[in-house]
Amino acid sequence: MGPRIGPAQMPDKETKATMGTEDTPGGKASPDSQDSRPSVFHNIKLFLLCHSLLQLAQLMISGYLKSSISTVEKRFGLSSQTSGLLAAFNEVGNTALIVFVSYFGSRVHRPRMIGCGAVLVALAGLLMTVPHFISEPYRYDHTSPEDMPQDSKASLCLPPSSAPAPAISNGSCSSYTEARHLTVVGILFLAQTLLGVGAVPIQPFGISYIDDFAHNSNSPLYLGVLFALTMTGPGMAYGLGSLMLRLYVDIDRMPEGGISLTTKDPRWVGAWWLGFLIAAGLVALAAIPYFFFPREMPKEKHELYFRRKVSALSSSAVSKGRDPPSEQSPGGSPEKQNGLAQVAPDLTVIQFIKVFPRVLLRTLRHPIFLLVVLAQVCMFSTVAGLAIFLPKFLERQFSVTASYANQLIGSLSFPMAILGMVLGGTLVKCLHLGPMRCSILCLLGALFCLLLGLPLFFVGCSTHQIAGILHQPGTQPGPGLFPGCMEPCSCPSDDFNPVCDPSTHVEYITPCHAGCASRVVQETLDKSQVFYTNCSCVVGGGPVPAGSCNSACSHLVLPFMLLVGLGGTVACVTHTPAFMLILRGVKKEDKTLAVGIQFMLLRILAWMPSPVIHGSAIDTTCVHWAQRCGRRAVCRYYDHDLFRNRFIGLQLFFRTGTLVCFALVLAILRQQDKEAGTKATVCSSGPEQQLLVSGPEKKPEDSRV
């Protein structure tokens, strides 16, 4: 059977669960169970189906924020550091409760606890949408008064006497506005925390429930099906994000006359909240069956048909003299595990708190366990950074829309990661890899993952020239090609309505900064395109289209994603062999606890700090911040070279840490193997010396032996 990540079951409970079908002749139910026919919910296969759907929906709602993080930043004026902290708060409640749930879960009704956790996840998903409904409608043009259409004359080059009054005055930045902003951000953080708390019982209780009541030979297959189906959840989250971000954020309250934005406009904000509503509804529907499953069900009696065929083939191979696999799957021994994992359900909370630190220190003293966990911490730190900020990186570096960035990630990265996990498990199973070979496979995977990341430094291009902010080497910084071209204009300092001069590839933060005095809307069948004319800072006076300049290296986005996907595939190959090293590196009675400690350390050392570290590094590359009520809000322009070098540099830093840890694991295993060989030689040297003394004529033969 596969390793139990959830709570350990007492022998009497397992015996009690199987008495109804196995203790009577012919496998018939006992008299107690004949009073009523078993319901359809007394079926482990149905539980497997329901749990696969629930975990898929739960991972979808947990991963959806990552697909829309850049949109949430723009909507609520958050920095990358704050958005990274928001994403990390999903792990706070989860980490605080996961150890206690894993050890005291056998005392409760596991299916109902899973259902309650799923209901909490659904409510947290609904809470994530509340900021949209309590906030004012999104205004992408902050200079136009609220009673005028957005992108009006306020952003044009007009004399001070005829310029309209600014929409945002010092009076509007009141304590009420700041309190409302803090309330919105606080609701987002609270919802993320509740998402983590609700997810605590779902995976460990579900895995242990399947492992307890499935046939011993079917349990690994069922868990494999569960993991394979649920791994598609994050990929579907990015697919859902791709669909929702094509819709305007205020689709439920569109302004009169519509909007003049397109999805490629840097001010575009998609309907980020709509995906949470859909995912929360799916989780709520998936939670319903769990309130009908029994606390215990009869253990599955029969092995699956094709599993019996495989077992028969294996038996015939062994009977012909071929050796069976040298390693048993973890947990496959008929002997019951003892130790803390066995007695923990009988401990009180106070007793468990007293015992846990001692067992934790004993587990961490295993060098193999500690190094493999540190290697996984480094590996998952790269995964956390990529999962949260890769969409934003693609948007900025290659001028793609948020929808297309999510589509690329969901359709390329996650399928290739799943392929890597399947390939790693297949190699371990088919080649019967022991600890030494598992460490070699992990080391090679980490090495190739590092090598595939090196070309990413060179797949990209510099930021185009932005008048007054960034200038290309060899050009003069300034508002435009003509000094003083915007002097007669009264340009608002906090406006953001970029236009691009296609002839020089120079971007201006507003039409006013380009000296444009008029605006023209060109209607087509499916969309409208805005142009600005009579621009004094542009050669020929324009027209210039609204929107940012396209990146000169947009065509490199697919090669970049291919390299990222290949690196993810190679990295995921190490997942199963690393897990086997953890199970082989600790004592038998500590395996359950070791797996729990592994997941706890991954959350504390990788999933929680990594988003904040990546977000802080990204913020240092910003060259122009939006200001909101005197405080720094969202970043509008980045130095693309710095962004790429620091983001990819962090990735390679963590990948190097993974490589070093796996190299140390291999060195320790070789040293242990050498010491074991030395001990075996010493133990066998005594009889050999006696033979040498009594029969010198046999010396060459004995020496050769």
UniProtKB/TrEMBL annotation:
A Pfam family: OATP
Cellular component per GO, a single term: apical plasma membrane
Keyword field contains Transmembrane helix: yes
Gene3D superfamilies for this protein: MFS general substrate transporter like domains
Compositionally biased intervals (Polar residues): 681-692
Membrane topology: Multi-pass membrane protein
Keywords for the protein's UniProt record, in alphabetical order: Cell membrane, Disulfide bond, Ion transport, Membrane, Transmembrane, Transmembrane helix, Transport
Tree of life domain: Eukaryota
Segments of this protein annotated with the region Disordered: 1-36, 316-338, 679-705
Tagged with keyword Membrane: yes
Domain spans labelled Kazal-like: 479-539
UniProt GO molecular function: bile acid transmembrane transporter activity; prostaglandin transmembrane transporter activity; sodium-independent organic anion transmembrane transporter activity
Listed Basic and acidic residues bias regions: 696-705
TM spans (from-to): 85-106, 113-134, 182-200, 221-249, 269-293, 368-389, 409-428, 440-460, 556-581, 593-610, 647-669
Subcellular location: Cell membrane
Compositionally biased region (Low complexity): 326-335
GO biological process, one term: monoatomic ion transport
Family in the record: Belongs to the organo anion transporter (TC 2.A.60) family.
Full protein name: Solute carrier organic anion transporter family member
Protein species of origin: Prolemur simus (Greater bamboo lemur)
